[in-house]
Design a protein that fits this description.
Layout lengths: L2 H4 L1 E14 L8 H8 L8 E14 L10 H16 L2 E2 H4 L10 H13 L7 E7 L5 E4 L2
Parallel strand pairs: 1-3
Antiparallel strand pairs: 1-2, 2-4, 4-5
Bound molecules: nickel (II) ion.
The site of nickel (II) ion has 4 residues, from strand 2.
């Protein structure tokens, strides 16, 4: 038995960022935006404390015993996500959300694409993003 190749293991790294956003569809009237998005359509924005769980799944490397070095994973998340999003206004400061609504669903998809480009292709990647302690999304499922 090759021990290192016998187990697929998930490594999870948790990170955190604070951001402001506003949910708004430019092609709708103010009334429709208010009726669909409610408080989340507040013109002066509002903030969330986002909790991010990044799950990397793969086989342990025979020599290191790691699926991925968590220091390397943490650095990737810092560079690609936290430095871009933390203490930012997602609508105004982050290009990805110039034309798409910064819902927690869309933020998770953007984060996945940013991290996917930096994590070795043989490793699976899954994102869980909490907008509140009671609301979170998973991507991809
Ligand atoms: Ni919100």
């Amino acid at each position: 038995m090759n021990f290192s190749e016998d187990f697929k293991t998930a490594v999870v790294r948790c990170e955190h960022f604070n951001s402001a956003h506003r949910l708004h569809n430019k092609s709708w009237s103010d009334e429709k935006n208010k009726s669909v998005f409610g408080k989340c359509n507040n013109p002066n924005y509002h903030g969330h404390n986002y909790d991010l769980e990044v799950k990397v799944i793969g086989y342990c490397d025979a020599e290191t015993g790691y699926v991925i070095d968590t220091k390397i994973l943490s650095d990737i998340i810092q560079d690609e996500v936290v430095n871009r999003f933390d203490h930012k206004n997602l609508n105004l400061d982050v290009d990805f959300f110039k034309d798409i609504n910064p819902t927690v669903e869309n933020i998770a998809r953007v984060i996945y694409n940013l991290l996917r480009a930096k994590i070795a292709p043989h490793l699976e990647l899954k994102i869980k993003l909490y907008e509140t302690s009671r609301n979170f999304v998973e991507y991809p499922i």
